[in-house]
Amino acid sequence: MSKSPFSWLRSGFVWFWHALDTGRRTVLNLLFLLVLIVLAIAIFGGGAKSLGPKTTLVLNLKGHLVEQASGNAREALMNSVSGSDNRKTLQLRDVLSVLDAAAKDANITAAVLLTDEMDGGGQAILREVAAALDRFKASGKPVVAWGSSYDQRQYLLAAHASEVYVHPMGMVMLEGFGRYRNYYRDALDKLGVTVNLMRVGTYKSFAEPFIANGPSDAAAEAEAYLNNGLWSDYTAEVEKARKLEQGAVMKTINDLPALVAQQQGDLAKVTLEAKLVDGLKTRDEVRAMMVKRGAPDAAGKSFRQIGFDDYLARIHPKLTGDAVGVVVAQGEISDGTASAGSIGGDSTSKLIRAAREDDSIKAVVLRVDSPGGSAFASEVIRRELELTRAAGKPVVVSMGNVAASGGYWISMAADEVIAAPTTITGSIGVFAILPTADEVIDKLGIHTAGKPTTWLGDATNPLRPLDPRFGQVIQGSINHIYADFIGRAAKARKTTPEKIDAVAQGRVWTGQQAKERGLVDRLGTYGDALKAAASRAKLEDYRVVYMEPEVSKVDRIIGLLGGSAAQAVAQSMAQSLGVQWKLGVGLNTGLPATAANGIAQDLGWLAELTAAHKPFTAVTHCLCESP
Q: Which residues participate in catalysis according to the annotation?
């Protein structure tokens, strides 16, 4: 019997559907296979090629020097796709690893230091890199530094090179430390905003910009003392590295107008005459010089060289054996969980706890670079370190650029505290801010009313004037937390609360000044902290394990692709989606963008403190950063 038209139609549809499904699976399988091939090539693609003799390490430092990269690989990739600000960061640990490994590598005979794209780094972290450059030179290998110009951060590293060159149109710009701050009292008064400040500490000046039109005498005194100490240390370091007479840097700055006139405005020649550089050369002239000194590359157009990223990829840390665990505490301290490159009370405590519970980790180093933040989160972290010591594992604190206020709080539960001479620390003090805008709503004709069951009902409403009784409660709480702060510090430093109070009061100190006042045990480097932790745990041959947040599967895949590969993928995606890459702009105020953004950041912080969590949270923050 012949099939009906409907049977033919149904059979045709079934055949078509099977063909479509088979095609779909085939395409998806091919795409999946392609991804596997790309990953296999990225992971097993022949490995690193062997280095030839007389290879030069090109240390092109791009980005901001930090203790730990922020965020994760997925965030970095999405920022690249969206065109968001994704400033490159350079981890201190990577720079030190590359320089120390290259110093022992027989095929590496010299290094070229390029600093044009290095856009920041605190004084303590720069000193760590400078010391690594000195170790490289001590192995008998020269370092040649070149820059189109140098700012004072870049120059601190360049000064430690065997030879320093600058472009004939460049210069070395040494400005000194200290900057003007904005003060908003009059502006807030005009807006009708009242900032109620509760604090303990004569020198606790964090919130002064919101309650005054200039610094208090105490704040001005403390800032001058700190900056002068840092600047004296900086100039001494440069003069020692460049073999200049004591006071030569300040003399050049003071005589600069006359020196510029003598050289008819040629700033490069002024720099050369001041012996801050060894010569004026273009980049191609430096390249030609390195070709003559070393070996030509395969193409015969440059010198045999290897870049920072490529050399870093050759370094493979030990994966087994006894270890010193390192927990990096970088950034502001907040409650709860924070991503890598920032500090969360819960997340950082979790890393410390993981180190304590890992049997292969015999000691812990807490590397601190933080101006502070939440007092509660700081105590949560300090307690976790206290438990680690109680469990029999030594704890050594290594202070980096800043370890002040809450950053000092988390440093108090340690067997030993080691600071750099240029660390900014101390700022033992507490404050709380309660902004109110009752005058603003009066101007707008807005009124607020209600019948809470107690006077505490809605006491934190920013549209009502601050009830003096509530202010008294908060001030009492701040006083108690300050007493707790200095009490814990006194116990940690084996002294009395009265002696700690005498050097506390919210005042900040350099590492050198803090050592003189008994707030730290000794001065030293990050490497000294690792050695101290290993010694306390009686370790001789040990590895270093960095405690990091758990990595998601997506981040692992992005990580396997490698940073440069991921960036290339991101840029390709962005171009295909028509994403425009654009710079941020300032507020629409008529002010320069940098000034407007600074004001927005200050006032934004005030608004954020009011809106997020509790507006009466006790804050241990120093409003300080390494210059």
A: 204, 405
